[in-house]
Design a protein that fits this description.
Largest interface: A-D, 48 and 50 residues
Strand content of chain A: under 5%
Main location (chains A, B, C, D): membrane
Number of strands of chain A: 0
Membrane topology (chains A, B, C, D): Multi-pass membrane protein
Helix content of chain A: 55-70%
Shape of chain A: extended
Radius of gyration of chain A: 25 Å
Transmembrane segments (chains A, B, C, D): 20-38, 44-68, 80-105, 142-163, 170-189, 201-221
Oligomer: homotetramer
Order of helices and strands of chain A: HHHHHHHHHHHHH
Number of helices of chain A: 13
Subcellular location (chains A, B, C, D): Membrane
Domain Ion transport (chains A, B, C, D): 15-231
Chain lengths: 281, 281, 281, 281
Amino acid sequence: MVYRIAFETDTTTGRLFEKVLIAAIVLSVLVVIADSIPTLHAHWYFAFTLAEWVFTALFTLEYVLRIVCLRAPFRYARSFFGIVDLLALLPTYLALLFPAIHVLIDVRVLRLLRIFRVFKLTAYISEYQQLGHALAASRRKIAVFLASVVLIVVVLGSLMYVLEGPEHGFTSIPVSIYWAITTMTTVGYGDITPQSPLGRFVTALMMLLGWGTLAVPTGIVTSEIAFRQAREEEAGHPQAHGLATLHLSGCAACGEAHHLPEARHCHACGARLPRVAPSAK
Amino acid sequence: MVYRIAFETDTTTGRLFEKVLIAAIVLSVLVVIADSIPTLHAHWYFAFTLAEWVFTALFTLEYVLRIVCLRAPFRYARSFFGIVDLLALLPTYLALLFPAIHVLIDVRVLRLLRIFRVFKLTAYISEYQQLGHALAASRRKIAVFLASVVLIVVVLGSLMYVLEGPEHGFTSIPVSIYWAITTMTTVGYGDITPQSPLGRFVTALMMLLGWGTLAVPTGIVTSEIAFRQAREEEAGHPQAHGLATLHLSGCAACGEAHHLPEARHCHACGARLPRVAPSAK
Amino acid sequence: MVYRIAFETDTTTGRLFEKVLIAAIVLSVLVVIADSIPTLHAHWYFAFTLAEWVFTALFTLEYVLRIVCLRAPFRYARSFFGIVDLLALLPTYLALLFPAIHVLIDVRVLRLLRIFRVFKLTAYISEYQQLGHALAASRRKIAVFLASVVLIVVVLGSLMYVLEGPEHGFTSIPVSIYWAITTMTTVGYGDITPQSPLGRFVTALMMLLGWGTLAVPTGIVTSEIAFRQAREEEAGHPQAHGLATLHLSGCAACGEAHHLPEARHCHACGARLPRVAPSAK
Amino acid sequence: MVYRIAFETDTTTGRLFEKVLIAAIVLSVLVVIADSIPTLHAHWYFAFTLAEWVFTALFTLEYVLRIVCLRAPFRYARSFFGIVDLLALLPTYLALLFPAIHVLIDVRVLRLLRIFRVFKLTAYISEYQQLGHALAASRRKIAVFLASVVLIVVVLGSLMYVLEGPEHGFTSIPVSIYWAITTMTTVGYGDITPQSPLGRFVTALMMLLGWGTLAVPTGIVTSEIAFRQAREEEAGHPQAHGLATLHLSGCAACGEAHHLPEARHCHACGARLPRVAPSAK
């Protein structure tokens, strides 16, 4: 019964529960962010602490419920979202026990990742998949590209360390590599800048090189997206159907939420899936 | 009669009125901009104030005329351009009554938006539509992309707040998020920069990630534009015809300016449209 | 005879003259650049001044020769390259007469533009044309895009002037607009940065907007280039033929260098063109 | 026998040797990088010096082995990788002999280039080739583009030198050109920024120009990659086959590693190639 409320989003109660949960996650993250602002921290210390404990209690309850309700709790606990759920709780308790690790308490913003779980990605899954496929198809090209960038950045960073030296801010090769990445990606903070004529000449070449290199990942991704789009147009918009290929209720055993509509068994643990309730229509 | 001059751009007088209005809008915005420069403000204070009141009087007259001439003045007053027209007048009067809100007087630059109304977009409408369609078609992809960027920026901003802390300029999580956006978009002001080795390492990863991420919106928009262009080529340039699909005179009742050439009634208020004068040819 | 040497690049002497001229232009620009470096200016003052007068004398001789040899000297003198040729000479003479305008002497770097004339673009004309066509075809789209950018930048610049004010470096609306362009183009100097929380929030939105907007011109140009390339592939590489459509010797009357191979009269002044010498093969 | 171990990666020993070599190269580069950090240099001076000599000895041994084993050692010594292998050794010995050139010792990071040799590019060669072809096909377009950028940057840099002058940091034309490249590539360090209103106006135009220009190389590369991808799709994925077209063992005479699988003679020196051992499967 509790399970149906918490995990089957097809029922009215389940949908309400989901909305409350999303609101709680967003609110708890906003509290963490607001608490980091010194003036707000000073004025609202008590309110923030109270809100933090209320949210932690709520999320703990939800975590325990999931563990209790699911028939394969270990599979859930070891899954990606199970670990995220745990990481969203632990810092508050740990900070109580060991005040020294207080700085790590902001790991709580990882709660934001839980939003993806609650959404169950039903609405946007096909867009994610499309981008994901585009990136996956270009995986090797991107790896080659990144390897080249790392090589160029290490070699040019070391060169600038030799040319400019510690007196111009290039205090070590790692710092020079950091500066080279700053320059090649066109971020250009300006905290470290070349001062010698030769260093500036090499920097000018690096910037032009970075400009050209910028075109390569754009070209790869664009070409991949355009190609995928053209194929989908030909095939009569399978993307539109893609939106319907999600099972609307999760697995009762391990909590896995993504299944094909015709699926009868969970693809993760093999448990039998509940039938889709008519109220889901 | 007055209506015909002010709102029917097909007559010679109407076109002259339109040109005077565009000049007045551009001039009034230039006066606002010039007035903000301290040296010019000191030397030309009287001239700027005079010009401001002349323009405000002119725009007030135009606004009153529109309200009086149109048969459905409320519909106009509540429309987007009606509110822009009002916002272009109000600050001058309000600043006279309440000198304290003087800082808001620069809201007057919103007058620039009125230019779009006067142009009636006849010349560029098809280009706008094409870009608009390209963006609308990619709406969901862009939403997914923005959601991912917000998530990445909040998580990485919080991480950098923990790693660098207030002593290196990361005074709170919102400031760190602002810095993370500065870095990921490759703007890189350099007012806040990481100082610790670990912070610089994470920053280097963020910059490379931002570099790659930059490719995604470019890919989406390019693919969409290329696809649209290819379809138009096949269909025999409907884009060219698109330029002719605008009714050249506005609705006498509510002032709505965009109608199909074959339209007999205003699509916004249903009032009968004037016939296109032969002088519009 | 002198004409044939200076303007007909098909003869051996003409080609040698051309190479000497390119070398002289590049050298004279390098002298201007080197002369601007304080230490070099102090040490090599005499040598630079001498070189400058030698180059000026050479270019003056060339200019006079052109005027004398051509049958329509006025047409040449008023053409784009005629004015560039004159601008490359005048500053040196004027600086002698009026030492006060010494700062304008660096207009001499415009001599670089002459290189394009000497090259006669024979080698790269088809690439230039292709890029030019791609840009021309997207002319209206680019105009719409630039108009939107100007509008956004003026409105957001004024908004930031209101939000941040002179105490944070936003001393006037033009300065704020300059800052807004710096931010939207992701250059981000960091000489002016928002300090107030609200200003930083608006800046973050501007940067994300600028990121997205960056995709639009890229999309337009890429789509145009890809489209052109696809058509050329189908049509059997007319680009390759494009390289041959240049008349290899100029018009004897006005100096215009670009003619179709089958042209019998100059398209600029109507004078009869010389026949292509067999040595041009 | 030694040859088989060091150069034939198809045998088990050969593969082990290769892995050890990659580890040694990466480790030696990490030691060079770590040695440049002042605090680590002070604490681990002895360990780093020892490691450096061990690696140098190892690489010297490998270099000598290659020279001895190959039947055409001169061809190897004069090849690109032969010179890289030598450059990876020399600085350590030279720094011992001439302590004054100690600053050049970081040339040792060039050892990273050796990784490409050891990998023999078997895994990524087709991706490299594809990117290489895309760039080679756009060679002329890129040359035209770079020439235009150089011209724009020299002319605008000189203009800004005249407009801003040495008192605002534009101390010479080369510095102004460096600044112009910084601005056009949207890096924007902020170490040199325009201060005069006219200079800022020109800068704003330059940034918008740079924004537009950025689209051109992206368009060229994207169009090239998309075109290549489309052709490969039609031709039935020759890219996939491309991965198999590498001979898995090098030439015994000159060490050249890239051969077609059906090759019987080395394409570089003509020596007979060893047959592929069954263990390579």
